[in-house]
């Protein structure tokens, strides 16, 4: 690791997990511009190989994951359109970085995930919810339309009709219902943040090349023919069969022991 985490004091790296706060306690858990700036700096370093992490964890530093954008800031701006455009560009740069990652991304969706907060949860590979989780589109409530990829990711998660009804109705939804629909990936009865961190730590010690290949194949599947995608799957699994993690995984299975990935 060559990136100095002292330059991003909100960001932490422990047990192979890069933890990125998106909202701050005491500020209503609205999306925080400085937190997103630090996220972008850390993700830039991670993508450049300057940070050695096996998973990313998105959290809110408070009782909620993220209650959406700072609406009071929208109202106070001299040029609301330009202000909101700049905020969307700021967020979307981070969303694009998350999408580029080859390692798993986990979101600890505790409390409310509304507006941009829900968009960030949808951008994660794993979104962990609990009994106190509530999700809300939020945008129609203030006369706006989605950002952060919500209108792209949500139809792919729950289908176009359900996504349209959820966003347009702007009704809060309990986490358990969101999980049942496929909007969120994981539901736990205990502490959401603890469960999300435990998941991220487990993933961080997993087969990184396998994760990267899975994410690459899934990204390509939407625009590939079945025949072309079958060729891509063949090439990928053959390549991984002679990779350090592939060799260790197969040998451990045959030996009936737990694999120790990341040693090669």
TrEMBL record:
Where in the sequence is the signal peptide annotated? none
Keyword Cell inner membrane attached? no
Which reactions is this enzyme annotated as catalysing?
a 4-saturated-(3S)-3-hydroxyacyl-CoA = a (3E)-enoyl-CoA + H2O; a (3S)-3-hydroxyacyl-CoA = a (2E)-enoyl-CoA + H2O
> Which keywords, in A-to-Z order, does the entry hold?
Fatty acid metabolism, Lipid metabolism
Keyword Amino-acid biosynthesis assigned to the entry: answer is no
Function of the molecule:
Could possibly oxidize fatty acids using specific components.
Q: Which family does it belong to?
A: Belongs to the enoyl-CoA hydratase/isomerase family.
What is this protein called in UniProt? Enoyl-CoA hydratase/isomerase family protein
């Amino acid at each position: 690791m060559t990136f100095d985490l002292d330059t991003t004091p909100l960001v932490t790296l422990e047990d192979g997990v890069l933890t990125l706060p998106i909202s701050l306690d005491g500020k209503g858990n609205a999306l925080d511009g400085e937190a997103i700036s630090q996220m972008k700096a850390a993700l830039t370093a991670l993508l450049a190989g300057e940070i050695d992490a096996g998973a990313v964890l998105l959290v809110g530093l408070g009782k909620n994951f993220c209650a959406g954008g700072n609406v009071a800031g929208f109202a106070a701006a001299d040029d609301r359109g330009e202000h909101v455009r700049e905020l969307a560009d700021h967020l979307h740069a981070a969303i694009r970085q998350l999408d580029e990652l080859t390692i798993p991304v986990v979101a600890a969706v505790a409390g409310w995930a509304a507006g941009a907060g829900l968009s960030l949860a949808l951008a994660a590979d794993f979104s962990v919810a609990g009994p106190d989780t509530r999700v809300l589109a939020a945008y129609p409530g203030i006369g706006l339309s989605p950002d952060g990829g919500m209108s792209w990711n949500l139809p792919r998660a729950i289908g176009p009709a359900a996504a349209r009804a959820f966003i347009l109705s702007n009704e809060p939804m309990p986490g358990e219902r969101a999980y049942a629909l496929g909007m969120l990936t994981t539901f736990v009865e205990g502490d959401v943040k603890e469960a999300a961190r435990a998941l991220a730590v487990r993933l961080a010690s997993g087969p990184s090349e396998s994760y990267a290949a899975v994410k690459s194949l899934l990204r390509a599947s939407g625009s590939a023919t079945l025949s072309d995608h079958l060729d891509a799957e063949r090439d990928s699994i053959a390549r991984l069969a002679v990779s350090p993690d592939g060799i260790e995984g197969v040998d451990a299975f045959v030996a009936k022991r737990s694999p120790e990935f990341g040693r090669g």
